[in-house]
Design a protein that fits this description.
By secondary structure, this protein is α+β, with helices and mostly antiparallel strands. The protein has two domains: 141 residues, 2-Layer Sandwich (Fructose-1,6-Bisphosphatase, Chain A, domain 1); 115 residues, 3-Layer(aba) Sandwich (D-Maltodextrin-Binding Protein, domain 2). It is 35% helix and 26% strand. The strands form three sheets. The protein has an eight-stranded mixed beta sheet with strand order 4-3-5-6-7-8-9-10, sandwiched between helices. Strands 12-11-13-15-14 form a five-stranded mixed beta sheet, sandwiched between helices. A two-stranded antiparallel sheet has the order 1-2. Helix 1 runs antiparallel to helix 2. The model has no long low-confidence stretch (mean pLDDT 95). Bound molecules: D-MYO-inositol-1-phosphate (IPD) and calcium ion (2 copies). The site of one calcium ion has 6 residues, from strand 5. D-MYO-inositol-1-phosphate (IPD) binds next to strand 5 and helix 3.
Length: 268
Amino acid sequence: MTTTDLKRYLAVATQAALEGGEVLRHYWGKIQHVQHKVDSGDLVTEADRESEERIFAILQEECPDHDFLGEESGLQRKQNGEFLWAVDPLDGTTNYTHGYPFVAVSVGLVHQGRPIVGVVYNPILNELFQAAQGQGATLNGETIHVSDASSLNKSLLATGFAYDRQRNPDTNYAEFCHITHISQGVRRAGSAAIDLSYVASGRLEGYWEQGIKTWDIAAGAIIVEEAGGKITDYDQGDLDVYSGRILATNGQIHDQLCQEIVKIRNSR
Ligand code: IPD
Ligand code: CA
Ligand code: CA
């Protein structure tokens, strides 16, 4: 893949994220219909659906041969999965319905299983995070870099909890308590895409979650990597965007955070 290709895909992802963000701004504070999916806390609104329709129309127009995975419309296959757009049209729906402005559009391009382009846009706080493989990462056009904190007791972290937590005993609650105890704090702000972008921009030192979906992390993963951070599975193996587990850090605290999470998981 050439740099020209990557720049074009980044421009397409940016246009899609900005247009999705326009939908989120339009419905902000005016949501009429909140529906529950399978699990009671898992919400969907007209803003999620319309944002995804707008994004999909752009991707379809610009990259008609690429596969598309959207949270609301599922997988649409055009080829053998070589290029896959993984899109969350509204990451942080619960926040959105409460007027809590930690929400984002997340548009990631995965090539042969690896994220290569990512755009995360918070249309309420007007923050645009962008990255493409080998091109660095930016926030509103300025280069960003992960923090240089070197231990957990100097770190602010983030995590999240999957919607199946009332029926799945593997809840992440014990990990949350333990890491809270040995760090400067663990935030649960409700948007994985923004959590990852905040690791990339040095506002957080690390983030982990399980039960997470490809559309939540594809864009944020490449943004963290391009900002100099590290992304793996819990076993420190390469990130598998389909595995449901992610550990993202500034690199310096990676081993320590990984060991503490695994220690708690093994003690159950
Ligand atoms: C959720 C958010 C949340 C994370 C959940 C996700 P949604 O996405 O990213 O932070 O903890 O696992 O499902 O439902 O708001 O798009
Ligand atoms: Ca999401
Ligand atoms: Ca969503």
